[in-house]
Amino acid sequence: NEIGCRAVTMDSIAAKLKISKRTLYEVFDNKEALLMECIAEVHRFIVSKRLENMKESQEPFLMALYIIRNETTLCLHYSKILNDAKKCYPKLTNKLLKNYAKRFKEALMEVFIKAEECGDLRSDINIKDIVDTIAMNINIGIINSNPNDGIQKKMLRETCYTFLRGLLSLNAITRYDSNEDKFRKILESTN
Questions:
Q1: In terms of Cα–Cα distance, which of 40, 55, 44, 49 is closest to 67?
Q2: SS3 state at 123
Q3: pLDDT at residue 145 in the model
Q4: Could you tell me the mean pLDDT of each successive run of 10 residues in the chain, 191 residues long?
């Protein structure tokens, strides 16, 4: 039964966890601290999945696809929780989200620098602008989407795939087009 964060009480949380309210307060000062730790845990999970997937491939394009897949899948899944938390605790939620966005951009920046070093990017690409554009579009897509709408998820991922492909050098396009089915399956899969 999903309810908003304002309706949740420390009593109901303790009851659901089958622990005393006192035990819960030994770990968390208040409901706000508990909620922020839950959001932070989601972010740690996303980052761990990102690192896990980056270890699986040395191909920059594939790493970018993994990052984008994880961001869209997990953020869409948790968008209701984050939006609800933002209504109740806007300052803390914004602080957490800014920190998370910074780490997301750093991971993308690392991938694009590697792609540039490998000669996979077009020479006219400004990496910082591209990273900012991708982050902004994913955020807009997530904010304006319904996490249960498969068509919206597919459109967001297809847009990201097409956008990334447009950044590639001619040699990289040829190489990646031969693996297009594999890359599309990565974007469509969820974890």
A1: 49
A2: coil
A3: 55
A4: 72 92 93 82 73 66 74 67 76 76 83 87 91 77 59 72 85 82 68 45
| Tokens of residue 141, six digits | 């897509």
Assess contact for 169 and 60: CB atoms under 8 A. Answer: no
**By CB neighbour count within 10 A (0-12 exposed, 13-18 middle, 19+ buried), where does 182 fall?**
exposed
Amino acid symbol at 67: I
Label residue 75 exposed, middle or buried (CB < 10 Å: 0-12, 13-18, 19+): buried
Residue whose token pair is 């792609």: 115
- b/e per residue 139-151 (b: at least 16 CB within 10 A): eebbeebebeeee
Long-range pairs for 176-182 at CB < 8 Å and ≥24 separation? 176/61
Tokens describing residue 111: 């991938």
Whole-angstrom Cα distance, residue 108 to residue 140? Answer: 17
- Using DSSP's 3-state secondary structure scheme, residue 121 falls into strand
| pLDDT at residue number 128 | 92
Q: Is the pTM of this model over 0.70?
A: no
For residue 133, the tally of other CB atoms under 10 A from its CB is 12
At 51, phi and psi to the nearest 5?
Answer: -65, -40
Radius of gyration of the chain (CA): 19
